[in-house]
Amino acid sequence: MKAYQELSREELMDLKSQLEEEYEEAKRKGLALDMSRGKPSVAQLQIGMGLMDVLNSESDMKTEGGFDTRNYGLMDGIPEAKKLMADMMQVDPENVIVCGNASLPIMYDTVSRSMTHGVMGSTPWCKLDNVKFLCPAPGYDRHFAITQHFGIEMITVPMSPEGPDMDMVEKLVAEDASVKGIWCVPKYSNPQGYTYSDETVRRFAALKPAAEDFRIYWDNAYAVHDLYDEKSDSLLDILSECEKAGNPDMVYEFASTSKVSFAGAGIAAVAASRANLDFMRKSMTIQTIGYDKVNQLRHVRYFRDIQGIREQMKKHAAILRPKFEAVIQVLEQELGGLGIGQWTKPNGGYFISFDAMEGCAKAIVAKCKEAGVVLTGAGATFPYGKDPKDSNIRIAPSFPTPEEMAQATDLFVLCVKLVSLEKLLERE
Amino acid sequence: MKAYQELSREELMDLKSQLEEEYEEAKRKGLALDMSRGKPSVAQLQIGMGLMDVLNSESDMKTEGGFDTRNYGLMDGIPEAKKLMADMMQVDPENVIVCGNASLPIMYDTVSRSMTHGVMGSTPWCKLDNVKFLCPAPGYDRHFAITQHFGIEMITVPMSPEGPDMDMVEKLVAEDASVKGIWCVPKYSNPQGYTYSDETVRRFAALKPAAEDFRIYWDNAYAVHDLYDEKSDSLLDILSECEKAGNPDMVYEFASTSKVSFAGAGIAAVAASRANLDFMRKSMTIQTIGYDKVNQLRHVRYFRDIQGIREQMKKHAAILRPKFEAVIQVLEQELGGLGIGQWTKPNGGYFISFDAMEGCAKAIVAKCKEAGVVLTGAGATFPYGKDPKDSNIRIAPSFPTPEEMAQATDLFVLCVKLVSLEKLLERE
Q: Do A160 and A266 fall within a single domain?
């Protein structure tokens, strides 16, 4: 394949009219496919249905310690659920609070509490003129939405396959006391599927923040979400690294079973130092008498232990892998060598990140939509929804079937080619 | 029975030494009973166990409209759960958002959101120097805990069997723009079991608040929690009354199935005008991708409709009624005519409210505790935990068995007598 940049204007024009014809034909197919969100597919949800059988009207509803899960109390989670979620995050159960059905509300509540009550004695952020968060990008749009919602200024930090640009992180955190946090998806990052290197994790743990209430928001959403047995990424435990570095209180870690059991009805947890958890408990004990402990019990009885979760994740991988591979195969076959796009090949997680030529992402997403394929909005992976290069597109292969994924990706590459051609022709 | 006030000093002294002997004897029994919280008993939890059978691995997990409850989405609740909770509150499903496992977090989140984001465009409360809530008291300690947690000033409003002192409420709400809310448990109030009269509800609906962001926090916790078929209280629907009075946005109503299905694993909802709900949804859509819809589906499949809930509540009443009656019988038999205490006889709810002689409540609670019976802390039913008369004690008869309740109440009346005697002797 010849790179588009090396084609003559005539060759570009010819190719364009040929691709436009293909696009018109594609539109006539009336596709209606959604690659926009990291939603588990029906097949994935189906493998968790055993969860619905572990409790019935004859079940003993007590924890191992004899606490009735149906009643009020045990505000910070049943002990066996703490153990399960601790093992998922590779931390000590004492460092875990188990909450409701998803980790997003825990993150939201953590930021909200910091606004109204500060962090372990610091000034409430709502009383400060400036509060800033560092946002490695491309990143997770719902993280950015939380900080934007609370009027927190977001500073974009570039990502590399090793993690965020740590020189920049170290400098900003050390110099600016209004920097109160950084959003991280450290394993199989959303959307690139990168896993932070050991060095990156250690540099995080060794940060010297100017602000006492600076925290790392470590969203370990894909802790056990490997696609392959033989080449899964591994991530250092940030809690013990922070402790070793003399910064035990500097991190909150979040995780859930949303993509292990059910996306709408899992269990979620936060891990942090005892001092952080004690401070959280002060608000939580006002906010709730207890999260849904019956669902915690259901999860524990179903998965039994981390090994049970790992077995389940192999079943998820078996469903997800062909979809990721279908996308990557089409990308390589159709775009390889053309010089008009780059993409990641993750070993886990829920996304593939695609970088188009500068200034093309929005047009590609719009063109896909016109022909019936919905992608995550261009820009969504950046703070304020603004990708400075208008280049990044997040591909979420999980929800459609592999056949639909191949169809959708065929259309996607067609749109990438067309928009890139138009861009190149403009330039001349 | 002769009232204690009419006894001579000698008679009081004689009685005292006799009662002290009884008390020492009671202590030797080594009681360990808890009348402190409105917790359902094991027998009550048991009648809801059918809830664990309605979903199994073969179940269709979709809503009637075909939405898969196991996946992300439907942030404000599945339609059939909206209908169920709407019927419980006697409002339109369009005015309902169904949330997680309890109503307390909805109330907390509502206050928290007002702190950081104001109310439908008003100034965020955290930017104001003064924010006040009216607190009809005796009332629910967890309400007061929320407002105290956010530094909101609480103003006590006296309660009567008709509801809060509406002259005072009208005046304060109309004159003081820093009054932003009022906590209400309008039916079978916590702890007195009073139900607001139609006139009270209409006066609430017709309030003319100085603050545009004033809201009534209508915690309809005991909407369907009648103890008797033949003499259940009825409450006017505040939403439609507010609408009729030209104040459609002035109220938030809260309810849950915590004391219908499981206290730890029910479903909860908020009802309000469309404008209020739209404003809430703006934050909720940042806070969550959706609450636990599988548990919403489970509740809908189990109860089917409001009639199913009513049938369930009759079973709860059959368990609760004898406990309430055991307490009241002992109170009447042992304290009737003595002039040292008054108590309520509710037709529903979870509590009996007891008013001791002024300055006696703390001592009574302490004396009960010393002999193994735990009551709600004296003062808990007032803002800041301070009962100005040190008189009110909340009795929660639900958790112990009727026999235990009778035992506990025997001890309670003994302590009431002893402390009252001591008080009377001090005075002379």
A: yes
How deeply is A140 buried, as exposed, middle or buried, from its count of CB atoms within 10 A (0-12, 13-18, 19+)? buried
| Å between A231 CA and nearest CA of chain B | 28
Could you give the C-alpha distances from A232 to A126, A228, B55, in angstroms and in order?
A: 42, 6, 35
- Same structural domain, A131 and A163: yes
ipTM above 0.90, yes or no: yes
Half-sphere exposure of A301 (CA within 13 A, CB side): 20
CA distance B106 to B98: 10
How many CB atoms neighbour CB A126 within 10 A? 20
User: Are B184 and B233 contained in the same domain?
Assistant: yes
**Average pLDDT in the A375-402 region?**
95
CB contact under 8 Å between B45 and A71, yes or no, is yes
Residues A232 and A314 both lie in one domain: no
Do A264 and B49 lie within an 8 Å CB cutoff?
A: no
CB–CB contact A288 B124 (8 Å) = no
CA–CA separation, A342 vs A145, rounded Å?
26
Q: Are residues A218 and A317 in the same domain?
A: no
* B347 within 8 A of B222, measured Cβ to Cβ: no
pLDDT category, B107, cuts 50, 70, 90?
A: very high
Whether B1 shows a pLDDT value over 80: the answer reads no
Residue A52 lies in a domain: no
Question: How many domains, in total, are found in chain B?
Answer: 2
Closest among A145, A137, A210, A146 to A178, alpha carbons compared: A210
Best of A63, A101, A295 to disrupt the B interface (most B CBs within 10 Å) is: A101
Does the beta-carbon distance from B127 to A124 stay under 8 Å? Answer: no
How confident is the model over A285-318, as pLDDT tens digits?
999 999 999 999 999 999 999 999 999 999 999 9
Assigned domain for A338 exists:
yes
Q: What is the pLDDT of residue A299?
A: 98
The CATH number linked to A294 is 3.40.640.10
The residue segments making up the domain with residue A393 are: 4-44+310-427
Q: Could you tell me which residues are beta bridge partners of residue A251?
A: A216
* Domain-located, residue B52: no
Q: CA B154, B159, B162, B166: dihedral to nearest 10 degrees?
A: -50
pLDDT given for residue B37 in this prediction: 86
Q: Tokens for B331?
A: 């109170």
Contacts of B273 (CB under 8 A, 6+ apart): B95, B239, B242, B243, B248, B249
**Per-residue pLDDT at A54 exceeds 70:** yes
Q: Which two tokens stand for residue A63?
A: 């924890």
Q: Determine, for residues A108 and B73 on separate chains, whether the beta-carbon distance falls below 8 Å.
A: no
Q: Is B409 helix (H, G, I), strand (E, B) or coil?
A: helix
Minimal CA separation from B56 to chain A, in Å? 5
Q: Kindly state whether residues B315 and B192 are assigned to the same domain.
A: no
Token pair belonging to A296: 């915690």
Q: Which among A42, A72, A74 is the nearest to B37, CB-wise?
A: A72
Q: Give residues with Cβ within 8 angstroms of B360, minimum separation 6.
A: B340, B390, B391, B416, B419, B420, B423
Distance CA A161, CA A186 (A): 11
A223 & A261 share domain = yes
Does A54 fall in a domain? no
Q: Please tell me whether residues A270 and A332 are part of one structural domain.
A: no
pTM over 0.80: yes
> How far apart, in whole angstroms, are the C-alpha atoms of residue A91 and residue A340?
43
